Amino acid sequence: MTVNMYKNLFKNRLTQIIGLLTLAILSYLLSYDFDNIVPSSTTDTNLIGKIPHKKYNLRGVVSLSDGDSLKFKKLDQRIRLFAIDSPELAQKCGIDKQQWPCGQRAKFALNQKINGQKVTCIGDEKDKHARLIATCYIAINDKGYEDLNAWMVKKGWAIAYTHYSNRYIKQQKYAKQNQLGIWRSEFLEPYKWRKKYIKR
């Protein structure tokens, strides 16, 4: 065979291989059930590139009251995390003798996540206790900002508070399916626990 014949043969084979690979990829994409994808990491669905502007934009070092309440140390402002409900500090999960302090664990998990970083909280409204109802974020290197509300729900340390919003339903589904945090045991929804045990 001449050199040109080898070149033509190689070119034809290469074209066939590329065509087959393209068909295989298209077949995979068309048949894949993207609606049931479960992200492998927390930050897949909780990252944003830029923090939205709201009526209140606060940033600083915070202290925690529990898994969904915090306070800016140098500002006279308490925060209630929007659309999530975390176990109360005194709340326990489980049944009978297998109970564990899920409220304390939720607070610990959020504290570990923040790890002394500055937190940015944004929101438009305050509740009857003068707390800002906010979505809070921490910076993730140069990748953007991570939604702490979403992180708490996805890790199973809070439930999606659907009475106010359905924003974190997907994160709750992930936590429930993977039995994370409070989903690994029996628990009373925090708002029901408050109604039963906290007298106001």
Largest sheet properties: 8 strands, mixed
Distance separating the two termini? 93 Å
Write the CATH fold name of the largest domain. Answer: OB fold (Dihydrolipoamide Acetyltransferase, E2P)
Compute the average pLDDT: 85
Number of helices: 6
Give the amount of beta strand, in percent.
Answer: 15-25%
**Poorly predicted parts:** 25-43
In which range does the helix fraction lie? 25-40%
Q: Tally of extended strands? A: 10
Estimated structural class: alpha+beta
User: Per the principal axes of the C-alpha atoms, what is the gross shape?
Assistant: globular
Can you tell me the number of structural domains? 2
Radius of gyration: 24 Å
CATH class of the largest domain: Mainly Beta
Any guess at the CATH architecture of the largest domain? Answer: Beta Barrel
H and E string: HHEEEEEEHEEEHEHH
Could you give the topology of this structure?
Layout: H1 3-31, H2 43-46, E1 47-48, E2 56-60, E3 62-66, E4 69-72, E5 78-81, E6 84-85, H3 102-114, E7 119-126, E8 132-140, E9 144-147, H4 148-154, E10 159-160, H5 169-177, H6 190-197
Helix pairs in contact: 4-5
Main attributes of the structure:
OB fold (Dihydrolipoamide Acetyltransferase, E2P); single chain; about 200 residues; globular; 10 strands; 6 helices; 2 domains; alpha+beta; eight-stranded mixed beta sheet
